[in-house]
Amino acid sequence: MPKVLSEEQLAFYRDKGYLAPFDGVDPADAAAMCEDLHAFERDEGMRASEIVVKGHLCFRRSYEFSCHPKVLDVVEDLIGPNIYALSSRFWMKPGQDGSFVSWHQDSAYFGLEPNELVTVWLALTDSTPENGCVRVIPGTHQGEIYSHVETYDDKNLLARGQSIEDIDHSDAVDLVLKAGQFSCHHERIVHGSDVNDTDRMRIGVGIFYFPAHVSSTIGRRPASLVRGVDDYGHWDADPVPASDRDAEVYSHVKAAGERYVDPQYAQEAAREDTTL
Length: 276
What we know:
By secondary structure, this protein is α+β, with helices and mostly antiparallel strands.
């Protein structure tokens, strides 16, 4: 029996590849997380969105978000009770600066088998079509594993500017969220986001969850067991942050980011056979 989702919601996710919106963290906690991110920028001289993987480990508050019962109850209904958090990314899209996220599949760069990861996108500010909310193309998780062109476009917020070219997005759906709410999408659904046409920063955090039986196709890696047990032993353990910007944890996160952008680690998108 599902914990929180209806059979209709489960069927919709299987068919369309996404669900939204859900109430997640308290809006006041979302606002406090935004202040944590602004403090990081003031102190470090860089945005937390420049941390390309595992950014949630750099802050105690975002680590706690990754373990939040309201989030994990939905994730459990989608992938089962034994849950790892693989990684995360803060998505900070300034107003009027032209930045965007190209059409892509998360599965192309995560190196997981089988493809059962679910992405939770937690809004830290309201996320709307006007400020560049996440958009998905329903049902694309059931079709091709698309090849991606690595553009390294300065305005593309993805680490390698990975982009699916010439895809029909006429039926794309906007995932509109209020601060503290979250959406879920399958790792193989095609998604992206447009520019922020408002005058205020749009902020969210994407957290990537998979069931414990899933293994890595690109070597042994660390992740965080956030619920249940692991009877498979495919993964090492990420460190748990005791405070913001814990030096040992921050070093671990930076090393993981260097590996993620290293082209020697071939991903699904670079394989010759890009169809099921």
